[in-house]
Design goal:
Helices cover 60% and strands 13% of the residues. With 320 residues, the chain is α+β, with helices and mostly antiparallel strands. The longest helix is centred in the middle third of the chain and has 46 residues, at 162-207. The chain is elongated and about 85 Å long. The two termini are 21 Å apart.
Amino acid sequence: MLIAVIIVPMSGGSHIRRPGPDLPSGWQAWRSDRALGAVLALVVLAGAAAVVGLVLLWPTGEGRDAARERADEIGLTYQRLAATVIEVTDRVCSYSAPDDPQACRTITTRVDEGTNAGTQVALPEFNLAYDRVSIRISPGDKVIVGHEDTNDYYFFVDRDRRTPLVWLAGLFALVVVALGRLRGALALVGMAATVVVLVAFVAPSVLDGNDPVLVAVVAAALIAFVSLYLTHGLNAHTTVALAGTLASLGLTLGLSWVFFGLAEFTGLATEEGLTLPLIAGDVDLASLLLGGAIIGALGALDDVTVTQVATVAELRYRSP
């Protein structure tokens, strides 16, 4: 972030939205100002390093396949199928003692997808004294059921929220494009690219046994390059903001590494942390937690650096 404060005044940077005629902008600024040229050189080196890291750490898929096989062996995987609630019935629980009857609810669903689509299935009964989820379910509701192939067992997973979430995503995209127009559309492309990096590179690379911190650093750099240049354009201001973002990521990595070590975080505080070693024993959970902190910090850092560059450029333009 300090890079934005130092470089923009030195470069005589243009107004972020309306450059003055006597102020250099774009490629002209990069060629004419030594400080900005040095920042550009560092950004180019960082980009080259990120590409090299991407090539060296690109996943083979072997770790992902092994994790899937291990999860299948210990019974952690199952099919998630869309279903529709057909009938809801209240009755005495099948396991109730005669002197202590308990109320249970049985839900019958119709499976809407998969090889058994159209089949009606009675899900395991819910004890109404302890389970509040089933109370809000009524005939016609869309739900997700789990299916274990080994014993043909169906069970309730959750409500099917895909339709409202798709509508919400569509509304979000519409508002972004309506307000941001081309830049808004490019920002959505950058968001999609972020998801691709996380799904296609980060997760399988970590499962291959690569250091989660190195993978996270490479991924964060790639995401920063793609999202910033797509959203804000290829210009001097974006380059300074990108340099500030990368420098801040380096500082975040250093501080996180020191204090994660002092606090001796293990990554075992969640259910996922306890499950992951069962299917991918080579993954260092502490490093994975640190890598997650690096990627998580990126979203806040790029907003701060872009805003700071715009503010400093505006002040410089108004009061050179």
